[in-house]
Amino acid sequence: MKFAFVDGIRGEATTGTRGICPGCGSPTLAKCGIKRLHHWAHVSTAVCDRWWEPETEWHRAWKNLFPTEWQEVRHVAIDGEVHIADVKTASDTVIEFQHSAISPLERGSREAFYDPMIWIVDGTRLKRDLSSFRQEITTCAPSAETKTRAWVLLDHASAIIERWRGGSRPLFLDFGDVEFPLPWLPAMGVLWLLHYLPRERVIVTPVLRQSVVDHLLTGTPIKGFARPMPVSPPRSPFPGFQAHLMRARARRPRF
Ligand SMILES: [Zn+2]
Q1: DSSP designation for 226
Q2: What's the pLDDT at 57?
Q3: d(Cα 202, Cα 206) in Å, to the nearest integer?
Q4: How far, in Å, from the CA of 64 to the mean position of ligand 1?
Q5: Where are the domains of the chain?
Q6: If you measure from the C-alpha of residue 196 to the centroid of ligand 1, how many angstroms do you get, rounded to a whole number?
Q7: What is the β-pairing status of strands 39-42 and 94-98?
Q8: Which segments in the chain show pLDDT lower than 50?
Q9: DSSP-based three-state secondary structure for 246
Q10: What distance in angstroms lies between residue 13's CA and the mean position of ligand 1's atoms?
Q11: Alpha carbon 39 to chain centroid distance?
Q12: How much distance in Å is there from the Cα of 73 to the middle of ligand 1?
């Protein structure tokens, strides 16, 4: 965890301090080594939120894009079960940053527990995920029926798409800054929005990562990439003159 209570104040881990877990109220110890991110760990082996996964640099970097008071927000279900949401926005949308593998059952429980919510998924955990995803995208033409550039794929088209099928919440894949062999797609700052449809299909839309962050911060629209304009025949800068020439030619005597 990034935050625990120290003398009643929520704070980050600093060397040698003890705190209280905001989730379960049990004592925590600051872990400030050089290998892992500074974090708080329970003194006992108790796990108060069974959904919690060890934080990676990736988690921390994402969380830090949002105000600290939005990070690690405690939720209690009617049955007393406690969970700590990675980020909860001002409009009460929970953002879950998922690096580890997750079973469909656990994913379903989280989607039921947090409503509304979105997933941001680390696409770099397994190397082959990016290659198979890229392969699908580049061998398939973008769909013509969407406003921005997007693909309609089968939901078992690539492993990472298949693993996440069956979900009911918006999901953004984060492959980090990698190049796709598509001239219109920047190599930096892109996320891939997956929208699962009935009948085993999924719409895959590249969007600007910053526009997703801005959307969550202030509600501005998420931006995709514009479709190319339909190609029309080149027009003469002087249409009247062109017509006049045509008429003059038609009047010319033929030999
Ligand atoms: Zn706890």
Answers
A1: B
A2: 93
A3: 13
A4: 21
A5: 1-48, 52-218
A6: 34
A7: unpaired
A8: 255
A9: helix
A10: 15
A11: 24
A12: 13
CA of residue 26 to ligand 1 center, whole Å? 6
58, 97 Cβ separation under 8 angstroms = yes
Name residue, tokens 């013509």. Answer: 144
Place of tokens 């080149």: 234
- Ligand 1 centroid distance, CA of 170 (Å): 28
Q: Is the peptide bond before 116 cis (omega within 30 degrees of 0)?
A: yes
Strands, E assignment, 77-169: 82-88, 94-98, 117-122, 151-154
Whole-number Å distance, alpha carbon 109 to ligand 1 midpoint, is 20
Dist. CA 107–CA 20, nearest whole Å: 28
CB 203 within 8 A of CB 243: no
Distance (Å) from CA 4 to ligand 1 centroid: 9
Q: 134-175, pLDDT tens digit by residue?
A: 999 999 888 878 889 999 999 998 999 999 998 889 999 999
Q: ∠ CA 164-168-171 to the nearest 5 degrees?
A: 55
Lookup: tokens for 157 = 């088209």
**CA-wise closest residue to 9 among 55, 52, 69, 66:** 69
Residue 211, Cβ neighbours under 10 Å: how many? 16
Distant-in-sequence, close-in-space partners of 3: CB < 8 Å, separation ≥ 6: 10, 11, 12, 22, 40, 68, 71, 72
Q: How many angstroms separate the alpha carbon of residue 42 from the centre of ligand 1?
A: 6
In the reported structure, the alpha carbon of residue 80 is separated from the centroid of ligand 1 by a whole-number distance in angstroms of: 14
Q: What confidence score (pLDDT) does residue 141 get?
A: 84
CA of 23 to the centre of ligand 1 (A): 4
Whole-number Å distance, alpha carbon 204 to ligand 1 midpoint, is 37
